[in-house]
Request: fold
Amino acid sequence: MQSRDFDNILVLTPNAFGADGVSTLSRHTLRALAGPMSSAGRLELWSLNECPADAREITPCPVKYRFAAGSKLRFSSWGLRASIRANRRTLVVLMHLGLAPVALPLALRGAKLAVFLLGIESWRPLGVWQRLALSRAHVIAAISEHTIQRFVRANPEYADRDIKICHLGATNLSASTSPAGHGNFALIVGRMSSQERYKGHDQLLQIWPDVLREIPTATLLIAGDGDDRPRLEAKAATLGLGGGVQFLGRVPNERLAALYRDCAFFVMPSRDEGFGLVFLEAMQAGKACIGGAGAAAEIIADGRTGFVIDPADRQQLSTAVRRLFLDSSLRDSMGHAGKQVVAERFTEEHFHRRFRDLVGLPQNGCG
Reply:
């Protein structure tokens, strides 16, 4: 498929302007597509859950944004209307399997369909509409080998399907203008959802008394928010962690960049991560990382750029955390190696090239 064959590209996503992984991937994808479509053709992004007030510039290239403000009926109606004019010169990029019913009419009319498999939404048996959409997909891309394995385990009939790996790239965070500092704190960044308690917050709170007994000044900073935060704060209080654990809430990009810059190391012992962009952001800042086995192992080189541990093994996690707090030379060595890995394989520009290759677009752009 040559780029001149596309005169209309539609990106269908639940969200594009948030801090979550789907939003970040949607922005990266839009920038990857924007350049090849800047001189001719039409590029649109449809957001199911957002409204115009949420929008901000993603790329200087021309993009038409449509916001359904949470209305599945409105979002579906756009798909039906667009299917009337869809043909083989239309490319539809589906950012979440939950939107498969909207993409299907477009694919049935001849549009080329590229589908992303991200995380837990693709690790369960597919529904009828999702199966029909995937049967019409020209490209299925997963953000990690781990996601492919989990997807096939839940849907073994896809074991022979050619699913491409398209690793993500580190977000280019705005450089912090605050004075540099080097705190004796570990950092975790991620939402706290009562429906998805897999990031590792509980495990970190449980081992922190052990950490404080050996390193009384060690602090855990928790960036992010969500409906599970009150429970976790209460748990920290029950464990008597006091100032040893601090909940920061959602932080703006500049503050986040400063946290990555100043932390001793980054830790997220997740057991169900589809990929883990936050590891790349920390490595980009030159920090060692501790991650859970699974997708994190595709980013973190165990023993070289950080540690890959079993999140269920309390002793293993505690040992890794205490070792990085106590050994600054090891932290620095791992951080330097991780920064080099990101520069060589995991920048956003690397993702742009990988994705453009998958869908047959040229390697140029303004996005």
Q: What stands out?
A: The two ends are 21 Å apart (CA to CA). DSSP finds twelve helices and 13 strands in the chain.
